[in-house]
Automatic annotation (TrEMBL):
Pfam family, one: ADH_zinc_N
GO MF assignments: oxidoreductase activity; zinc ion binding
KW Oxidoreductase (keyword) present: yes
Keyword Zinc included in the entry's annotation: yes
Recorded superkingdom: Bacteria
Occurrences of domain Enoyl reductase (ER) (ranges): 8-311
Protein name: Galactitol-1-phosphate 5-dehydrogenase
Amino acid sequence: MKALNLYGIEDLRYEETTPPEIDNSNDVIIKVVATGICGSDNSRYKKLGPYRAGTPFGHEFSGTVHSVGDDVKHLSIGDAVTGCPAIVCHKCEQCEKGAYSRCENLYVIGSYEPGCFAEYVKLPAHNVLKLPNNVDFDTAAMVEPSAVVAHGFYRTTMKPGATVAVIGCGSIGLLALQWAKIFGAAKTIAIDIDPNKLEIAKTLGVDYIINSKEENLNDVIKTLPFNIDVAVESAGSPFTIGQVLTLPSKGGEVLLLGIPYSDIEINREHFEKILRNELNVIGSWNGLSAPFPGEEWHASLHYMSTGKIKVHAMISDYLDLAQGPAIFDAIVNNKKHFNKVIFHP
């Protein structure tokens, strides 16, 4: 099969690769139809390099069941599916509690096992979910990031009628604005420095947009006729991780979804917001709960099927997998503007 294999920093090759085989009775091999680039894939390509040189990476995908092990009963050849890419041990203390996102041995495909930037990918059967009939493959390729966002919102205590602000309107942020409405937000605020992303947020029904490059964010927040109950950081920027602490009203919540890839320093003013405003600062990792892979996955598929989670406005490019090396180079070296990129192997 053909795959995108990562050999080193900015060393990505589209080449012939050994396809996966059924080794265990609960294995499922999936023919990949759509697979998306995650922000963490860009960081792996640009800054971190592979876990294992020459391994296909990628972990957001959908496809059809190609073959199954003898013990797999809930899936049939040809079923349209998506897959949870997180592999957990099911043995450690956290797994025994059902806190799978905190598994001591968690990893995702594309690291120690081959990922989905390939024609075929393999997962354990309990990681594979059937698609509702009205959820297309491109939408289903974004169930994983949706589940990650949902996991964060399940960790908050937000109530219907809340105001939610999201800083950083990439894919995670745009999904967060939609999940905020699902959780009952009366008002949503999108904050970013990219007017293109803010325009997408508008099309997805956000109530207010703030371009924090053109306006002073603190000044704008002070003029709002309402308080912010929950502030979501989804950029992973050292700057916005401090800035988000200034957004909620006293007693509010801060949900941290963005992953920083450099050290973070929080200045005194921002840190004191946690203390003086008695903020509840919530870290969130992955998108798993019990029963595995969790309510986040089933809820994502449900709301995609009802149209409350829309992803097509977020996707800028649908490309052949063979273009992968050139596209990753263009993304991380700012040669062209992209929103979400979906490959079709």
